[in-house]
Design brief:
This protein is an alpha+beta fold. It folds into two domains: 1-22 and 190-220; 23-189. The chain is 22% helix and 37% strand. The chain has helices at 2-20, 191-219, and strands spanning 23-35, 45-52, 58-65, 69-71, 83-85, 94-96, 103-105, 120-124, 136-142, 157-159, 162-164, 166-172, 175-189. Strands 1, 2, 3, 4, 5, 6, 7, 8, 9, 12 and 13 form an eleven-stranded antiparallel beta sheet that branches. Helix 1 (2-20) runs antiparallel to helix 2. Mean pLDDT is 80; it is low at 7-21 and 193-197.
């Protein structure tokens, strides 16, 4: 009986650890074309936002532009930022883990024409402001003021009754301009989290089967 209790406790701890360490990834797709002359067929890329449930003040962002699409850095920085987005409550944030990537905060609200204003943006800062061939961007949005009761959450800008979570200034189909992203995949736990939870539930199942066998022997 003691062995069964220990096994049950270990299984419960495994599930608890999975939940406590869980991270959730939400995918947004850049589908709306705001390019002068048109940027060709959508989609133009994806933006994956990973929320670490143990850190209310952190969002990891990864932008992957589609084949034939790249960041454009030669536009008007007030209208065409490399990447623009919103956050609920307009908290003060810093950007981490940019590393050697030539992007930095624009320090100003982005209009992201023709989609409207966004509160936060990053601009390309490389040589001649011309990011030839740059197709990815990854960074962490961090807020020191966020709490479990007031976490860092993406906001959106409404355009033609559609919520837009991101806008990116790109070069595609020989034209440049902003493309915008909508929510296309609901939040899902990361594979490692699923694996830990499955192990935990499997352990609980084994414990329940062992208890039933013990009860069966006792009744006999």
């Amino acid at each position: 009986m003691k062995t069964i209790k220990i096994a049950a406790a270990l299984a419960a701890l495994t599930i608890g650890a999975a939940v406590a360490g869980a991270s959730q990834a939400t995918v947004y797709t850049l589908t709306l074309d705001g390019c002068t002359g048109g940027c060709g067929a959508a989609p133009y890329g994806t933006v994956t936002v990973t929320n670490d449930l143990t850190d209310a003040g952190s969002l990891d962002v990864f932008v992957q532009l589609a084949a034939g699409v790249q960041f454009n850095g030669a536009g008007n920085s007030n209208k065409h930022n490399s990447l623009a987005f919103d956050l609920v409550g307009d908290p003060s944030v810093t950007y981490k883990n940019l590393g050697a990537q030539p992007f930095a905060s624009s320090g100003a609200m982005s209009d992201a024409s023709p989609f409207g204003p966004f509160g936060y943006s990053l601009d390309y800062t490389g040589q001649n402001h011309n990011p030839t061939g740059v197709t990815t961007l990854s960074f962490e949005i961090y807020s020191a003021t966020a709490t479990a009761l007031n976490p860092l959450v993406l906001g959106f800008t409404t355009y033609n009754n559609t919520p837009l979570y991101f806008a990116a200034d790109v070069l595609s189909n020989g034209n440049t301009g902003n493309v915008a992203g909508t929510l296309t995949r609901a939040t899902v736990p990361e594979p490692a989290t699923w694996a830990m939870m499955l192990v935990g539930f499997g352990g609980l199942g084994a414990v329940l089967r062992a208890q039933r066998r013990r009860q069966g022997f006792a009744a006999a």
